[in-house]
């Protein structure tokens, strides 16, 4: 029964046993990235590549490790009914500036194709609210990502 529940969320028993705070943060962040990529109902290889790059650079993962984290996150996102279980982990474990970094990552995925869909915009705002990131900071991060696209 436990094995089925764990596999439902894309985790193995070994991963749960060795589930450090860092691994939980990586998983929760990756799930939120996947949710943004899915928000506009288009899955682009550009978004997948951007998620991998962000996971690698943010957490210092190898390509193989980032792929594994992303695969588990996609399974968890498919089977999840709420964002709260993932945002709660980040809210409890991260500082405000680290939460801002997560919101910036979300904007980078939403804008990976240089087009902001209304569903992506809504989802970033919703997640930012759940992380208790101030709306003004969310808008500042959005502008920062837009400006980086022009370069």
Q: Concise description?
A:
The chain has helices at 2-8, 13-17, 21-39, 45-59, 63-79, 84-93, 96-110, 118-130, 135-149. With 151 residues, the protein is an all-alpha fold.
Give an overview in words.
The chain is mainly α and 151 residues long. It has a single domain, classed as TerB-like (Orthogonal Bundle), CATH 1.10.3680. It has helices spanning 2-8, 13-17, 21-39, 45-59, 63-79, 84-93, 96-110, 118-130, 135-149. Helix 3 (21-39) crosses helix 6, helix 3 packs parallel to helix 7 (96-110) and helix 3 (21-39) runs antiparallel to helix 8.
State the CATH topology. Answer: TerB-like
Mean pLDDT: 87
CATH superfamily: TerB-like
CATH structural class: Mainly Alpha
Largest sheet descriptor: none
CATH architectural arrangement: Orthogonal Bundle
Main structural class: mainly alpha
| Range of helix content | over 70%
What is the distance, rounded to the nearest whole angstrom, between the alpha carbons of the first and last residues?
A: 51 Å
What gyration radius follows from the Cα positions, in whole Å? 15 Å
Instruction: Note the overall shape.
Output: globular
| Annotation field: number of helices | 9
The percentage of residues in β strands lies in: under 5%
- What letter string, H or E per element, gives the SSE order? HHHHHHHHH
